[in-house]
Amino acid sequence: FISENGMGVADEERFMDESGQVIDDYRIEYIQDHLAYLWKAINDGCNIKGYHLWTFIDCWSWINAYKNRYGLISLDLPTQKRTIKKSGEFYKQLSNQNGFEYDIDRLV
pLDDT-derived band of residue 23, with 50, 70 and 90 as boundaries? Predict the structure, then answer.
């Protein structure tokens, strides 16, 4: 069981568009690549029971406080406003469709 898999990015606000959404294509690619390798591992006979993405919302960390952002939803600390990142929209679509298109030739 993959219990915690995610990508922390410092100063993620720099990837915000004019509407305030974080356009985190780098996180979408990271998730796709990891899930594709999990799919390959399952097809190769590995006993994979589950996968948990870290994390659904930007959160505080013992190591770096709020410096690195991991969530599918951005959290504006002063206002507590939450905004779905592009990766959050991707993950919703992934869940609704139970999969995604992936170029299998990208796997090593």
Answer: very high
Interval 70-93: pLDDT, tens? 999 999 999 999 999 999 999 999
Please say whether the beta carbons of 60 and 47 come within 8 A.
Answer: no
Q: From residue 11, give the alpha-carbon distance in Å to each of 50, 54, 82, 105.
A: 30, 18, 16, 32
Helix, strand, or coil here: 74? strand
| Neighbouring residues of 87: CB distance < 8 A, sequence distance ≥ 6 | 22, 24, 27, 28, 31, 72
pTM reported for the whole predicted model: 0.91
